[in-house]
Amino acid sequence: MTKVYLKKKIAPRIANGHPWVFGNEVDRIAGEVNAGDIVEVTYADGKFAGRGYINPKSQILVRLLTRNKQEFIDEQFIHNRILRAWQYRQKLGYTENCRLVFGEADELPALVIDKFNDYFVLQTLSLGMERWKDAIVRSLETIFSPKGIYERNDVPVRELEGLAQQKGFLSAPFDTNIIINENGLKFHVDIENGQKTGYFLDQQDNRRAIQHIVKGAEVLGAFTYTGTFEIHAAHYGAKSVLGLDISEQAVAQANRNAQLNGLDQVCRFEAMNAFDVLKQWGKDGRQYDVVMLDPPAFTKSREHIQKAVAGYKEINLRGMKMIRNGGFLVTSSCTNLVQPDLFLQTIDMAAKDARKKIRQVTFQAQAADHPIIWGMENTNYLKFLIVEVSDR
């Protein structure tokens, strides 16, 4: 097996559990390098560090899969890892819908599998993981006997690995428009054309957190996508709910979701640019009891972090100005490069500029089926905050 020798100064990061080995962290390679192959990674002193797959086309040269010298990477290994991930979710109570595999957090780097009841959507985001796609599908079939498996590999990050973007069935074809249950509500999920894998499971616990603050409230939701937070608000007793999203397709599905739950008299959605609307309605003096903001990621590169922060500050400032005294702001950020402390600082700056006093109600990360590994920033990506907003 080809051996990859690490530079001395890199050893602590890898020894402390990080699975990524960057090209500039390697001292030398002994043996042939074939993209996607399993290689052995060794510390500078010759001690075994782990085994993983290599891709010289990627900035991340090796992603480690195991640190156990006795463990070899084969189909049984993949099966065992997926089974272990499932057993973990079951222990936490995620049995119907969940992120079954969350990449590095489940020691299967660059693999994402979402479980929507009996349907599975997967993403193999690196060449090394793509090689095991058939084994992954066979494991899902063995463990779950699913009604359908679909790949959503239509993501640009694959191109950094020399892979094409693609999507399609990995099982017998099935109707990709399904309905799932969440917190006592039903939602349409478009597996084939919805964002990411079709639905944002990472907010499923956070959607319950608005239960008490929305009772009898006039609620505005911006960047609603298919309306999950807004429909929860209506379900939890909001007086009226208006949701805004720039996508006509998302708004149509959101309105269908409201109808599906018999909440279309309380909850409606309109296709509008939330950035423009928040600015204009703030000037017009519109007021709400609760404003909910769940924007898409503002940056995927470190160079643009300051722009992302400015964007978060701006929309939260606008949102706060539209909240009645003693009302609530519900705000999220899924930009993993904006870490929790920076996000909270940004909200604090927005409050100061809006001349508002804020009191934290709750601050949470993504649902626990997306485990956070300390020391791996990319696993700690979602920030969910509720604050009470009052006049100074």
Describe this structure as you would to a colleague.
The chain is of the alpha/beta class and 392 residues long. The protein contains nine helices and 20 strands. A seven-stranded mixed sheet has the order 16-15-14-17-18-20-19, with helices on both faces. The protein has a six-stranded mixed sheet with strand order 2-6-5-4-1-3. α2 (75-92) packs across α4 (133-144). The radius of gyration is 23 Å and the shape is globular.
Topology:
Blueprint: E1 3-6, H1 11-15, E2 20-22, E3 26-30, E4 38-42, E5 48-54, E6 60-66, H2 75-92, E7 97-102, E8 111-116, E9 119-124, H3 127-130, H4 133-144, E10 148-153, E11 166-169, E12 177-182, E13 185-190, E14 218-222, H5 228-235, E15 240-245, H6 248-260, E16 267-271, H7 274-284, E17 288-293, H8 305-321, E18 323-333, H9 340-353, E19 356-364, E20 383-391
Parallel strand pairs: 1-4, 9-10, 14-15, 14-17, 15-16, 17-18
Antiparallel strand pairs: 1-3, 2-6, 4-5, 5-6, 7-8, 8-9, 10-11, 12-13, 18-20, 19-20
